[in-house]
UniProtKB/TrEMBL annotation:
It holds the Pfam family PMSR. Residues 204-253 form the Selenoprotein methionine sulfoxide reductase A helical domain. Residues 1-19 form the signal peptide. It comes from Hermetia illucens. It is an enzyme of class 1 (oxidoreductase). PANTHER family: PEPTIDE METHIONINE SULFOXIDE REDUCTASE, PEPTIDE METHIONINE SULFOXIDE REDUCTASE MSRA 2. Its EC number is 1.8.4.11. SUPFAM superfamilies: Peptide methionine sulfoxide reductase (SSF55068). Keywords: Oxidoreductase, Signal. This is peptide-methionine (S)-S-oxide reductase. The keyword Nucleus does not apply. Belongs to the MsrA Met sulfoxide reductase family. One of its GO terms (molecular function) is peptide-methionine (S)-S-oxide reductase activity. Residues 58-197 form the Peptide methionine sulphoxide reductase MsrA domain.
């Protein structure tokens, strides 16, 4: 059995050989090596930051396909975690193929000392059109589910301002009290992160962490370019990433920045 020291040496050598001196190979950005990550974790003593202990508030939005919405909010400064699911209806135990009268939504926890509910609403208004001014099926409705009276007041004021800005279009967005949230199936959670299988594996993703992990929420957005390279570089050290994980993500942020949200 190889010793830990051997793997540390190997990780250091490979990191140097593939690193900034020589430039990372194209294959590196297509397939992250889990054994290299494990070696770096041992050497550097860094592990994924799945949880951040701080006071938080909850927000829930329906804005069309929930994959894109989860990416948008995940990479937003001050957002602590995200998960997608179904809410706003009365059908018991909805599933993707049997939603009943529910809507696809993203639920998030955020630190109000860093990002305000008003800021989240600005992202909401500016990042979806599908269902915002057109009546469509309930699954993709434009929806704000408030958790407190203060959120309701802020949302109603924000809707009025947005309506004035968009006249003569009529906004169809509904503002309703938050009701029971039903988490979507595992394959919907952090959908973009899960498409990077080696990275997700190296982060130790489990079904529970797909819904609760801080770093998973962040990378799910950054991997499609949300937030941009500059923001990623500033906060990447908070994520508990190894050098190869960090470089892998940075490359994809740079490659996809400005590409817009998609499903």
């Amino acid at each position: 059995m190889w010793s830990v020291q051997y793997y540390i040496f190997l990780a250091s050598f490979v990191t140097f050989a593939l690193g900034s001196h020589w430039g990372y190979s194209a294959d590196f950005y297509n397939k992250l090596c889990p054994s290299l990550v494990r070696s770096e974790q041992l050497e550097c003593g860094v592990y994924p930051t799945h949880h951040v202990e701080t006071e938080y508030e909850k927000a829930t939005f329906g804005m069309g396909c929930f994959w894109g919405a989860e990416c948008l909010f995940g990479a937003t400064l001050g957002v602590l975690n995200t998960r997608v699911g179904y809410s706003g209806g009365t059908t018991p135990n909805p599933k993707y193929r049997s939603l009943g009268d529910h809507t696809e939504v993203v639920e998030l926890h955020y630190d109000p000392k860093v990002v305000k509910f008003e800021d989240l609403l600005e992202l909401f208004w500016n990042n979806h059109e599908y269902g915002l001014t057109t009546k469509i099926k309930k699954q993709y409705a434009s929806l704000i589910l408030y958790h407190t009276d203060k959120q309701r007041e802020i949302a109603e004021k924000s809707l009025k301002q947005e309506q004035e800005r968009r006249n003569p279009e009529v906004i169809t967005t509904l503002i309703v009290p938050a009701s029971e949230f039903y988490p979507a199936e595992d394959y919907h959670q952090k959908y973009r992160l899960q498409s990077h299988k080696d990275l997700a594996e190296s982060l130790g993703m489990t079904p529970e962490l797909l819904q609760t992990s801080y770093v998973a929420a962040k990378l799910n957005g950054y991997l499609v370019g949300v937030g941009g390279v500059e923001q990623f570089q500033k906060e990447a050290d908070n994520f508990g990433l190894t050098p190869s994980q960090k470089e892998y993500v940075r490359h994809h942020v740079e490659e996809n920045e400005g590409g817009g949200l998609f499903c």
